[in-house]
Write a structure and sequence with these properties.
Blueprint (H helix, E strand, L loop, with lengths): L3 H17 E7 L10 E5 L6 H9 L4 E6 L8 H7 L3 E3 L10 H20 L3 E4 L17 H11 L9 E9 L7 E7 L19 H23 L5 H22 L8 H21 L1 H21 L15 H43 L5 H35 L7 H41 L1 H22 L7 E2 L5 E2 L7
Parallel strand pairs: 1-7, 2-5, 2-6, 3-4, 3-5
Antiparallel strand pairs: 6-7, 8-9
Length: 497
């Protein structure tokens, strides 16, 4: 049941996520059953941000199990208790704890979470057991299977069976402030008959462990499809290059202007490339390797020119007076107007930044905890810093007015302005380097197009040929999504096979 405390914390999580991310997209809510409880399973690429996204976007009551050390964190521990989070005592975190006591504590937590499912709630689990930066799943623990069958054992007569709902968390640039994220809920797992059972509590240990292994393997198979796992980041980036290449070429042939794709469209298109790649790697390995080499060379040329796929279709923008004027104004704004605001932001926010660094050093058990700590601590520390700067500025202005009466007596205005500048300067500081690089790149792009027309003409030919080769390899495959007249990938993400 969603208590008032749960609703309040859900709204707080929504506010924090909307501040941290530019856009949070959610798909697949129609797959969530209206009745009964279950388990939401996901991979774990981004620390405490992952459960916060599920907590805020899931339409029904959801409870979590979390490692017991997180309950010691100020503020976060209180919030976790308020929403019914249960402590999990992991072996690596409880080396000094008696093994029997740890097992008993975990069994109590497991039973408490199972009872919430029986009552109709959902629980979110990350079966990898650790957050990571790999483009593929880590080894899955059997916790989901243990939890699922324990919930079935505690069902009452007439209760609906629990379900397992996989969710894909797709980050644009997960380490970047104000990036985008897609939360994609998929249909519940359709279990084979041998796993769709309620085992007796006195089941032999070996039979129970074998069932745990089989269900864990099934969850791993589906999650691999859901998150589009790749063997390496190189392969991951090449698939994104192929996705952008195909989109740009289709738009060029249709003579339409591309707009920035949503995260859902990006993920659909990536899913087509991903499934096609692994399907044809089994049937046409030599053709796939040859095409990979061509995409790699094409990607290297684009990177050398610092261009994107769609940019090779545009005429040299410096020949257009209006766009050149806008570019000059942009450069003046970025290199002359923003630096003073940036300086104020750095001076005011530096102590808060130092404090966040010290808290990270003290509280973060792993590097993956740092982003989570920054979000939950920064939401308290930074506003207090901006308010304090405003109060200090107002006090200083009052003293200056007493010394020099000619200065207007506007201490409130002075305090508010300094607070706003501190906030704006902090925001600018987070994005300035990227903005400055993008502005410099915009100038280089326009000059590059004029200077290297022959190279760009060759890239257009390469893009067209690679596009046709990709389409040819995909013939006969049942790929997700459909292509509309403008070259966009439409329709929702498909369920995993």
């Amino acid at each position: 049941m969603r208590t008032p405390a749960y609703e309040w914390i859900s709204r707080l999580a929504r506010l924090l996520l909307r501040l941290f991310f530019r856009r949070v997209e959610v798909t697949g809510l129609e797959h969530i059953p209206a009745e009964g409880g279950g388990i939401v399973v996901s991979w774990h690429p981004n620390g405490m941000i992952d459960p916060a996204l599920i907590f805020e976007t899931f339409p029904r009551h959801v409870v979590f199990g979390a490692r017991h050390g997180l309950f010691k964190w100020p503020v976060l521990g209180h919030l976790m208790r308020a929403v019914g989070t249960q402590p999990i005592y992991r072996r690596q975190d409880t080396a000094k704890m008696d093994p029997d006591a740890r097992r008993d504590a975990n069994q109590r937590s497991l039973d408490a979470l199972s009872d919430r499912i029986v009552e109709g709630s959902f629980s979110a689990l990350f079966p990898e057991g650790v957050s990571h930066d790999a483009p593929h799943l880590q080894e899955l623990k059997t916790g989901v299977a243990r939890f699922y069958y324990r919930a079935r054992q505690r069902l009452r007569e007439g209760d609906p069976l629990p379900v397992i709902v996989p969710v894909g968390l797709h980050y644009d640039q997960k380490d970047l402030f104000r990036s985008n994220v897609l939360v994609a809920y998929h249909p519940p797992l359709a279990l084979p008959p041998e796993l769709d059972v309620t085992p007796p509590e006195d089941e032999p240990d070996e039979a129970r462990r074998e069932r745990y292994r089989q269900l864990t393997a099934e969850v791993e198979r589906v999650l691999r499809e859901v998150v589009h796992a790749t063997e390496s980041w190189d392969a991951h980036y090449l698939m994104h290059r192929a996705r952008k290449l195909v989109r740009a070429e289709r738009a060029s042939r249709a003579q339409v202007t591309l707009e920035a794709p949503s995260m859902e469209e990006r993920t659909r298109a990536f899913s087509r490339i991903w499934r096609g790649y692994y399907a044809r790697l089994e049937t046409h390995p030599e053709e796939v390797e040859a095409l990979k080499a061509r995409v790699t060379e094409y990607d290297a040329d684009l990177r050398a020119l610092e261009l994107e796929d769609h940019e090779i279709d545009r005429p040299p923008a410096l020949l257009r007076f209006g766009l050149a004027t806008l570019l000059v104004l942009q450069a003046i704004f970025v290199y002359l107007f923003l630096p003073p605001i940036l300086l104020v932001g750095v001076i005011v926010n530096a102590p808060a930044g130092l404090l966040l660094w010290l808290v990270n050093r003290w509280a973060a058990k792993t590097q993956k905890d740092e982003a989570s700590i920054q979000v939950f601590t920064g939401v308290v520390v930074l506003p207090l810093t901006w308010i304090g700067a405003g109060v200090l500025a107002g006090w200083a202005h009052t003293n200056l007015h007493a010394m020099y009466p000619a200065i207007p007596d506007t201490f409130i205005l002075a305090g508010v302005m300094v607070s706003l500048l501190a906030f704006a300067g902090g925001a600018v500081a987070l994005r300035y380097l990227r903005l400055a690089r993008e502005t410099a790149r915009a100038v280089r792009v326009r000059l590059t197009r004029e200077r290297r027309r022959l190279t760009i003409a060759r890239l257009r030919v390469d893009r067209s040929e690679i596009h046709d080769a990709l389409v040819s390899l995909g013939v006969g495959l049942d790929l997700p999504g459909e292509i509309d007249a403008d070259g966009r990938v439409v329709s929702r993400l498909p369920p995993p096979p």
